[in-house]
Automatic annotation (TrEMBL):
Name recorded for this polypeptide: histidine kinase
Keyword Hydrolase: no
GO terms of molecular function: ATP binding; phosphorelay sensor kinase activity; protein dimerization activity
Domain Signal transduction histidine kinase subgroup 3 dimerisation and phosphoacceptor, residue spans: 171-235
EC numbers for this chain: 2.7.13.3
Keywords per UniProt: ATP-binding, Kinase, Membrane, Nucleotide-binding, Phosphoprotein, Transferase, Transmembrane, Transmembrane helix, Two-component regulatory system
PANTHER family: NITRATE/NITRITE SENSOR PROTEIN NARX-RELATED, NITRATE_NITRITE SENSOR PROTEIN NARQ
Superkingdom of this protein's organism: Bacteria
Any Pfam family the entry gives: HisKA_3
Entry coiled-coil feature ranges: none
Organism for this UniProt entry: Streptomyces noursei
Entry's Gene Ontology cellular component terms: membrane
Lineage: Bacteria, Bacillati, Actinomycetota, Actinomycetes, Kitasatosporales
Reaction catalyzed: ATP + protein L-histidine = ADP + protein N-phospho-L-histidine
Bilayer-crossing regions: 51-79, 91-108, 114-135, 451-478
Length: 568
């Protein structure tokens, strides 16, 4: 469907070709009816060249032989036909037919003086009729090829994303299986042995209480392990929606369903630590406000990580936990004192070093941040700032600096490498904005080089043809001109009454195709005389008139010589 602007442009172009055709016919001897008819035909053919490219090309090429006003339209018709005629064979047949018919009609229409241009007719028609079609067809094929390459590359990108997603899913399932088989077994053993130990009659009340804490901790760890394993097994990633962030958000929301995994569950963490013999102080300040499920769960994880690190690295040290409800965010702070000097330095503490890293990622996804550092007395401080409202649009973001947080380093993130929308089934396959910059640069460079090479080859071939045709035409016309052309001085030097033999010796014999048709419109010849008509080397009084010198002989004498003009 054409836009209004394109319709207006086509109409304007048809009017231009109509005016050009009318002007071309007005320069001749065409009447008003002929001028109007040719102008209307040119305008109509211009409008139809996109719908009927082959028919318009043939009609324009044939009509240009009789109606010179259609000449400018030939170039545009050839360009449109080269792009729109389907099939190489059909296009070649159409252009060959148009070329042969136009050249043949030119030969039938011109009179003998105009045959001076015959040697240039073939290369001229080649340049005007065939070359625009070839260039247009090449340009159209190159654009089609480029679109096909973009489509193929987009398909490769989609397949690469799918393969990467499948590989991640397989790896998640493998990790889930390993966690279930190894950690699940060990936690189950801990829970069973702790349960058996708890009912041992030889234990004191204090020991039985500590064993109960161990059993509850192992059971809680089993529940959390099942949740993580379920997410790893069942989670799917959609590259269009930030897979890592969505997965972590879903995990946080699922965990937050249990009230014991949010701010309300911090009391349970504090109680468990106190039961283990650690001094823990919990302080609250400000007016409590509700948090988003993911932020609520992140607050729980900050306290849990702070207590875990304190138990690992500073056993026996006192711990202070503070929940401050600020105007725009909840500040969760866990501070432990320095480890007592009597701490057992021989105990082995297993630490993977990933707890604080994962905690920082979790808080960034909800729009917050984490701060860690040593205190003045040698202790350790862990603080988290968690906003009450999630980031805009509910999408997990707000990494420092405004960048979207992901589990992948930005230099290796597929979405960072391709700034456009991630490839998917709904993407436009010919949209080049989603292509890698290196591929776009290579395709552009190759297209430019191939276009220059082919264009130079076509131009060189046309130039060689024109040069060869020009040389042959010049040689041929030079020989023919010597047989049928004289200058005005030679005409003036001949006198009436001279002998025929003397006059013919001084003049060309006129045996050339150039003198054919010079009798059309000429004055009548004397009765019984034989006349010799020759062309003049000078131009006529008008571009469509040719000067002619005629010599008539009778009884061996020159009885008449005349100078006149004939229409070419």
């Amino acid at each position: 469907m054409w836009t209004p602007g394109r319709v207006a442009g086509e109409v304007l172009l048809s009017l231009v070709f109509g005016l050009l055709a009318a002007a071309g016919e007005a320069l001749g001897t065409g009447g008003t009816v002929r001028i109007v008819a040719v102008a209307l035909a040119a305008a109509l053919l211009s409008l139809l060249r996109r719908v009927l490219p082959a028919a318009v090309l043939l009609l324009t090429a044939i009509g240009s032989a009789e109606f010179g006003g259609l000449g400018p339209l030939v170039l545009v018709a050839a360009w449109s036909a080269g792009r729109r005629i389907s099939g190489v064979g059909r296009a070649a047949l159409t252009f060959a037919t148009a070329y042969v018919l136009a050249l043949g009609l030119w030969l039938l229409q011109v009179t003998s003086p105009a045959l001076l241009f015959l040697a240039f007719a073939a290369p001229f028609l080649l340049v005007v009729l065939v070359v625009p079609g070839l260039i247009s067809r090449y340009w159209s094929q190159r654009r089609t090829l480029a679109d096909t390459l973009r489509e193929y590359n987009a398909q490769l990108l989609r397949e690469r994303a799918m393969i990467a997603g499948q590989a991640r899913m397989r790896e998640r399932q493998r990790i889930a299986q390993d966690m279930h088989d190894s950690l699940g077994h060990q936690l189950t053993l801990i829970s069973v042995h702790a349960g058996a130990l708890e009912v041992d009659r030889e234990l004191t009340g204090r020991q039985r209480e500590a064993v109960g804490v161990l059993r509850e901790a192992s059971v809680a760890a089993m529940h959390e392990l099942r949740e993580v394993v379920g997410l790893l097994r069942d989670g799917t990633e959609n590259p269009r929606q930030g897979s890592a962030s969505q997965a972590l958000q879903a995990m946080g929301e699922e965990d937050a369903m249990a009230s014991s995994r949010g701010v309300a569950g911090i009391e349970g963490l504090v109680a468990a630590s106190r039961n283990a013999g650690t001094t823990v102080e919990l302080r609250r300040s400000g007016e409590p406000r509700p948090l988003a499920p993911t932020a609520d769960h992140a607050a729980y994880r900050v306290v849990q990580e702070g207590l875990t690190n304190a138990h690992k690295h500073a056993p026996g040290a006192s711990i202070a936990i503070e929940l401050r409800y600020e105007p725009d965010a909840l500040v969760v702070e866990v501070v432990n004192a320095a480890a007592p000097g009597t701490a057992d330095g021989q105990r082995s503490v297993v630490s993977g070093g990933q707890g604080l890293t994962g905690l920082g990622e979790r808080t960034r996804l909800v729009g917050g941040m984490v701060h860690t550092g040593r205190t003045a007395d040698g202790g350790f401080r862990l603080a988290g700032v968690l906003p009450y409202t999630p980031p805009e649009g509910g999408a997990p973001s707000c990494a420092a600096g405004g960048a979207t947080a992901t589990f992948v380093d930005p230099t290796h993130d597929f979405r960072q490498q391709n700034p456009a929308v991630a490839p998917g089934e709904g993407d436009l396959v010919i949209d080049g904005s989603g292509l890698p910059k290196e591929l776009v640069r290579a395709m552009t460079k190759n297209k430019k080089r191939s276009g220059i090479a082919i264009g130079c080859g076509i131009a060189a071939a046309i130039l060689v043809l024109l040069m060869v045709a020009g040389v042959l035409a010049a040689l041929f016309l030079a020989g023919e001109s010597d047989k049928a052309t004289i200058d005005p001085k030679q005409y003036d030097a001949v006198k009436v009454g001279q002998s025929e033999a003397e006059v013919r010796a001084r003049l060309p014999h006129g045996d050339s195709f150039l003198v054919n048709g010079l009798d059309k419109g000429a004055p009548p010849e004397p009765k019984g005389a034989k006349c010799l008509a020759l062309m003049s080397t000078e131009a006529g009084s008008a571009w469509y008139k040719d000067p002619v010198f005629r010599f008539c002989f009778k009884d061996g004498r020159l009885i008449e010589k005349k100078s006149f003009e004939v229409r070419n």
